[in-house]
Design a protein that fits this description.
The complex is a heterodimer of chains A (about 260) and B (about 350). Chain A has about 260 residues and is an alpha+beta fold. Helices cover about 20% and strands about 35% of the residues of chain A. Chain A folds into 2 domains: about 55-150, OB fold (Dihydrolipoamide Acetyltransferase, E2P), CATH 2.40.50; about 155-255, Beta Barrel (OB fold (Dihydrolipoamide Acetyltransferase, E2P)), CATH 2.40.50. Chain B folds into 2 domains: about 10-220, no CATH class; about 225-340, Rieske Iron-sulfur Protein. Chain B has helices spanning about 10-40, 45-75, 80, 85-105, 115-120, 135-150, 155-160, 160-170, 170-185, 185-190, 195-220, and strands at about 225, 235, 245-250, 255-260, 265-270, 285, 290, 295-300, 315, 320, 325, 340. In chain B, helix 1 (about 10-40) crosses helix 2 and helix 4 packs across helix 5. Classes of the chains: A alpha+beta (about 260), B alpha+beta (about 350).
Amino acid sequence: MKKREDEFYIGYVDGIGQHTKKTVRQFVLFGLLAVILIASIFAFTQNRFKNSTFELATTTKIMGVYHENPYPMLKVKTGENTFKNILLLGFGKFSANPYLKKIRNKSGSISGSMISIEGNLIYYNGKTLLQITNDEKVTLLETGQAHQAPRPSTIAKNMELKGEIVDPKCYFGVMKPGKGKIHRSCAALCISGGIPPVLVTSDDNNISEYYQITDQNGKAIHKDILPFIGKPSLLSGQIVQLEDWYQIRIDVNTIQELDLPSRIY
Amino acid sequence: MGVNYQTVLWNKNKKVYDKWIGIGILVYLICFIGITVATNPATSIETLIIRAFGTLAIALLHIVLVIGPLARLNTNFLPLLYNRRHLGVSMFLAALVHGGFSIFQFHSLGNVNPIYALVTSNMDYDSLTHFPFQVLGFFALIILFLMASTSHDFWLKNLSPKTWKRLHMLVYFAYALIIMHVFLGAFQQQPSFASIGILIFGFIIIASLHLIAAFKETRIDATVTQDTEDGWEYVCDVNDIPEDRAKIFIVEKERVAVFKYNNQLSAISNVCKHQGGPLGEGKIVDGCVTCPWHGYQYLPHNGQSPPPFTEKVATYELRIQNKKVYILPTPLPEGTEVTPILI
């Protein structure tokens, strides 16, 4: 029987023994197959992404009646007697308010004023939002359109809703996913920066409804709600309709965390 | 081996090694991104980058961690160990892309510093369900950064091999942090039997290989010398040592390698001064004991690296009687000349 050669590999010396070469080749081949398998498993097992859109590279100019109940929105005419209320947001994880300061300083209250804004649209499932990145692109066109601004109307005095509190900017398009545990820290940062909290509910048929969250007096909530963001929760309060948006007016102390996995879409 | 520090002492084997690292990374990214875009096209570019590089880093970390025990179990795997640091640095860069994009995406552009936001945006540190998993990934990234940035012989020399080794053993702590980061983060939001299963399988492979390698080393450590008279301890029969190779023995709790070459015997410390490699698993090449890990060399009769290199290891005195090899258990100062004994 032929004695096997005493192979010894030295990295800085060219050449490699036959047995060593064979082992290394087998390892590399196995490694490549493992890499393909791991990539396939991680890629195939991702949850479905929703078809939300954030037009980061495109700006759109919209015009409508500004109102804040309590969150900045623009009521935009989309057709004959049809309107859409677009939620206004700032750049990054901030509200729209810093970008409206300039025209507020010039004209005082701007509620009920006709305003044009150029920004990036965010939209999903019937809701539209607009990111403002430059206060120079906010123009006051006309004051005194208050009669066109939507008025909140109560549709239920006390209602319980199960869902997850999200930041609408990420949820409706900027991030995928913009919900759940992975996104929770980001949502907390967005809401603490002034972006309105929104409750997302989902029924058994995965049909979602969205509720802007305010305190019991209809005032904005931000920091007080942070511990509940991104967790399935039970909220109870008055339901208010603001044309194509709902609001839930709550006492944050009554929010109950539910020990459930997130089901929202 | 090198006298002066250079960024990389390139040679043919390192180039081939790096070429295959590049190919592996490319194959992974093409597979992950291709499958995601084809089957889940509503993804965003940021999410694609975060997930592709995060999962790539995990895959590379598993490969890095199996190479060590494989090379201890079978010397045919030693070429994989030789340039493992490049694989480690590649893994860190993949983790950095994942971590950097995640910090920018989730924790930047807000009303507080991104790192402060990362640590404080979710304060449920007392809950396993809601635990801020990002913090675990962040600390793992810091460890990987420390390892990658010191992954050069300059740092090995200046930190001392012992400190350097301790620092680089933190890779196991980083691995634990990364596993928890994934299980308390991604797997909570999108649990899947296959993806959880493959990480558990990876853990079993890594743990098993380390245990088997450790078992092999405990058998070596069980090869102790036996007391005899006059302070000399019996080591082995001269025929037990292969030509140009060594046998490793525990002498006074230290591993010693007894080499046979050119019809003579010499004994030196088993621990290479470079990264603590097992010199006794090396070979006499060009008259020098050559470390199996990175090819550091020592003259067997004095434990000194041949000039211009300056590394030195302890030497031991041997004697031979009736084909039986005996050793004086007290090590001589590093680099002490000891006349080889003739067989």
